[in-house]
Amino acid sequence: MTIALEVQTDSWPIAGGFTIARGSRTHAHVVTVTLIEGPHTGRGECVPYARYGESVEGVMADIARMGPEIERGLTREALQQAMPAGAARNALDCAFWDLEAKRSGVPAYRSAGIDTPHDMLTAFTISLGTPEKMAADTAKAAGRPLLKVKLGGEGDPARIAAVRKAAPDARLIVDANEAWSAETFADNMAACAAAGVELIEQPLPADDDASLATLERPIPVCADESLHTSADLERLAPLYDAVNIKLDKTGGVTEALVLLEKARAMDFRIMVGCMLGTSLAMAPATLPAQQADYVDLDAPLLLERDREPGLVFSGSLISPPAPALWG
């Protein structure tokens, strides 16, 4: 039976806005794909990211160009070679996974080799700001067991100290979003160590991270912008202790699971993270997240509203997605 493709864009307001080292946003702009085969539909969502040269318009055009191929019988497996890794392939790959589950009655987690999915503890993000603003935001979230703190380079020692004071009992991980330099690395790392930070994401720019091989790393360092697919792991092995797997970088669940297996075999610690999207974007990521050391899928908690039905959160615990949402 022929599979029809539909693609649309949606905008979701962010509660209070969202700021990282590269700038601020008030809305999450996502692209939603629907694959229709008779009575069955499969959905996927991606978040085009300008850091990787993507735009909503460009991603939608890339997806639309695959429509004739999908009508001619393109499979999920063939999709991996038909499109490069990135947001566009992610939306289609996730929609194929969902369609396959709806068509066969076999849950996506079973197809991914998971017998019984479990709840996952997600980090909760503290947006970049002044030390005072970050302390106030942290105080509101101090009861959450794991906080992810966005840093921005200059002034980061004061920021992380303020966050730790406001949440003395929370576990902390940090995301610098490429904002540190080799010159500021030692002081910022020392401040994070003093605050008891467990993990630091992407401290240096992806095109200037070779110096990590010679810098002291008292806290494990995690590749985010430097990592896209399993092909990147060999280069990253001397530089990083962990990797952040995001479906919008890997181009979907299919490559994410390949990346997860290879990274585990190479003794990387695993984080499964996300761009700022809805529960439809998070749901497929719960498959690799079942085996992650750190889960960062809190995006729906940062939105003013989410899809219905969405993921179920109990505090910072995420339940596996219901089939009505995905998979």
Itemize the secondary structure elements and their pairings.
Blueprint: E1 4-20, E2 23-37, E3 40-46, H1 56-64, H2 67-71, H3 76-82, H4 87-104, H5 108-111, E4 120-121, E5 124-126, H6 131-140, E6 146-150, H7 156-166, E7 171-175, H8 185-194, E8 197-201, E9 221-223, H9 233-236, E10 242-245, H10 247-250, H11 253-265, E11 269-272, H12 279-289, E12 294-295, H13 299-302, E13 313-314, E14 317-318
Parallel strand pairs: 5-6, 6-7, 7-8, 8-9, 9-10, 10-11, 11-12
Antiparallel strand pairs: 1-2, 2-3, 4-14, 13-14
Helix pairs in contact: 1-4, 6-7, 7-8, 11-12
Features:
327 residues, single chain, 13 helices, three-stranded antiparallel β-sheet, TIM Barrel, eight-stranded parallel β-sheet, alpha/beta, 2 domains, Enolase-like, domain 1, 34% helix
Low-confidence stretches: none
Mean pLDDT across all residues, rounded?
A: 97
Portion of residues in beta strands equals 15-25%
Q: What count of helical segments does DSSP give?
A: 13
Judging by the overall fold, what is the CATH architecture of the largest domain?
Answer: Alpha-Beta Barrel
Shape annotation: globular
